[in-house]
Amino acid sequence: MSHYRGRFAPTPSGPLHFGSLVAALGSFLDARHAGGEWRLRIEDVDPPRCPAGAADNLQRQLEAFGLHWDGPVAWQHDRHAAYAEALARLAAQGLAYPCSCSRKQWRGHAVYPGWCREGVQAPGNPVAWRLRSDRGLRPVVWHDRLFGEQHVNPAALGDVVLQRKDGLWAYQLAVVVDDAAQGITDVVRGFDLLDNTPWQRQLQHALGYPEPRYLHLPLIIGEDGQKLSKQNLASPLPEQDDAVRPLLHAALTALDQAPPGALATAPVAEQLCWAIAHWRVDRLRAEAHRQVVSLIR
Fold first, then answer.
1. Which of 113, 130, 132, 225 is the most exposed place for a label (fewest CB within 10 A)?
2. What CATH superfamily is the domain 79-179+196-208?
C-alpha cells in the first residue's frame, strides 16, 4: 500500500504500560510494513485526567522502544473549534441533541433511554450533547481485519455522549474528527474499542468522512484477570535499554509474531527491523485476550 497513514493516540493520564506497548507496537508495525506513515496524537480533551508532564513521559517511553512517529505530535486540546463545528453539523441534521439527564436517573436501564430526544427534560439544567443513534446509519457493517465482519444496530447501544455537561469533548466525536483531519486510513487499536466503532461509523457517515480500515488487537490481561490499565496500577514501561529489550520481545510474542528467541537481547533497532519485515496480521489469533503473566516472566 503506497497510501497508508496510521496513528497511536494515547490519553496522557499516566505512563504507558505493557498493554499500551502492544497496542502501539501493533499499530507501528502495520504502518511500517505497509511502507506508510505512523502519527502520534495526544488525546488530552479531558484535562483533569492529564497530569502535568504525562505527555512528555509517554513520548520518552515510545522513543525508548524505538517507536518513532512521523510529523509533529497532534494535540486535541487545541481542537475545540473543529469539534464544535462538527457538533453543529450533526445538530442541524437532527443527529445530536441536548440532554439534561444524569446517569443516576437512568441507572436502572442498560443504555440511556433517550428521554431528551424530543426536548430537554429539565430546562435550565446543564446539558450534555448526545448522538441520536436511532437516526444515524443503520445497521453498521464493517470488516475488522482480525475479527471479521461486524454487523451492529447502534440504536441498541444507546445515544452516546458527544460533549459533556462540563463542556469537555467526548472521545467518540473527537477521535472521528481528528482521524478525518489527519487523513488516517488505518485504525489499529485494542479490542476494548471494537464496540465503539458503530457510533464512530455513524459519525463518519453523517459528517461525510472516509471510513478507515480497522484492526482490533487482543487485550493484555493481568494476573487479576483484568485488562492492564493505569486504573489498576499496571507497571509503567521502563526506559532503560537492558529492560526495554526483553519487554519489546515479549510484546512481539503477545502479537503472535513468533520472534526468534535470540532477538530477546538484541538491540531495539534490530528487533524492530525483523518485526517490520516479518509482520503478518494473519498470525494474530482472533481471541479477545492475552494473559500477560506468561509473556513477561
1. 225
2. HUPs (3.40.50.620)
Q: Which three cell numbers stand for residue 206?
A: 453523517
pLDDT one-digit tens code per residue, 229-284: 655 557 899 999 999 999 999 999 999 999 999 999 999 999 999 999 999 999 99
What gap in Å lies between CA 292 and CA 290, rounded to an integer?
Answer: 6
Rounded distance between C-alpha atoms, residue 27 and residue 69, angstroms? 11
Helices (H), the chain: 18-33, 54-64, 80-92, 171-181, 197-207, 241-254, 268-278, 293-296
Hey, where are the domains in the chain?
16-21+48-65+237-297, 79-179+196-208
* Residue whose grid cell is 484477570: 225
pLDDT in tens, 166-191: 999 999 999 999 999 999 999 999 99
| Lookup: cell for 161 | 455522549
C-alpha cell of residue 214:
480497522
- CA-to-CA separations, 251 to 105, 168, 228, 283, in angstroms, rounded: 43, 34, 13, 14
DSSP string covering 227-257: BP-TTTTPPBPP-SHHHHHHHHHHHHHHTT-
**167-201: burial string, b at 16+ Cβ within 10 Å, e else:** eebbbbbbbbbbbbebebbbbbbbbebbebbbbbb
**CA 232/CA 79 separation, integer angstroms:** 30
Below-50 pLDDT ranges, the chain? 1, 293-294, 297
Q: How far apart are the C-alpha atoms of 24 and 17, rounded to whole Å?
A: 11
β partners of residue 40 = 8
Q: Report the C-alpha gap between 103 and 106 in whole angstroms.
A: 5
